[in-house]
Each structure stands twice: as C-alpha cells, then as structure tokens.
Amino acid sequence: MQIAIVRGTVVSTQKIPSLTGVKLLLVQFVNDRGESLGEYEVAADVVGAGIDEWVLVSRGSSARQESGYENRPVDALVVGIINTITVQQGLLYSKRNAERVY
C-alpha cells in the first residue's frame, strides 16, 4: 500500500460496463515526509474518501482482491482513510488537524 492525498474526482460517462457505478478519484502519492511525489493516479474508491483526505491506496493485482473488483480493470483502489500517521520524528499527519504536523 501507498499513502496518497485525494486531489479530485474523475468522471467518465463512456466506459466499459464493469466500471459502471465505480467512484473514481485522482490521487497524488506522498513520501515519508508527507511531500508530494508528483505522481498522480486514478483509483477506484470503496471507502467514500473525499478531496484533500489522506488515504491508503492498494495497487496492482492486490487492488483486485476486494470483493466485487476481481473482474474489473482496476490498477489502484482506495482501501482506507487515514486518521493519523506517526513517524520517528513524531506526528506527521492528523486528520483532526487536517494538515501535516511537521
């Protein structure tokens, strides 16, 4: 899994039938200091994440392990909304504060 920030939503009215009803998010990955890596990816969302929330993203074949996604062409799946991240230096992120702490 990787840590990412939800930057937006993706709407596609024309898509294959297996993606009908799947919420798509634009996520940007971050490093262990909470800095944006510049990489963006479209990820299916099963947890109801919103813009600016920090999330856990599963990628590759493990993204298709969630029930209902095994036969869909999904390369990334938002599997969790992060409440806090603590690293050796201390608190990196807190949803309550909605910002990076250091």
How is the secondary structure organized here?
Elements: E1 2-10, E2 24-30, E3 36-45, E4 54-59, E5 76-81, E6 84-87, E7 90-94, E8 99-100
Parallel strand pairs: 3-5
Antiparallel strand pairs: 1-2, 1-4, 2-3, 4-5, 6-7, 7-8
What would you note in describing this structure?
The chain is mostly beta strands and 102 residues long. It has one domain: Beta Barrel (OB fold (Dihydrolipoamide Acetyltransferase, E2P)), CATH 2.40.50.220. The protein has no helices and 8 strands. The strands form 2 sheets. It has a 5-stranded mixed barrel. Strand 6 and strand 7 (90-94) form a beta hairpin. The relative contact order is 0.23. The mean pLDDT is 87.
Structural class: mainly beta
Task: Give the overall shape.
Answer: elongated
Strand order of the largest sheet: 1-2-3-5-4
Uncertain ranges: none
Beta-strand portion reads over 45%
Compute the number of structural domains: 1
The helix content, as a percent range, equals under 10%
Largest sheet: 5 strands, mixed, barrel
| Secondary structure tally, helices | 0
Query: How many β-strands, per DSSP?
Result: 8
**CATH homologous superfamily placement:** EutN/Ccml
CATH class identity = Mainly Beta
CATH fold-type name: OB fold (Dihydrolipoamide Acetyltransferase, E2P)
Q: Can you name the CATH architecture?
A: Beta Barrel
On the 0-100 scale, what is the average pLDDT?
87
Tell me the series of helices and strands, N- to C-terminal: EEEEEEEE
Cα separation of the termini: 23 Å
| Rounded Rg | 14 Å
Quick description:
The protein has about 100 residues and is mainly beta.
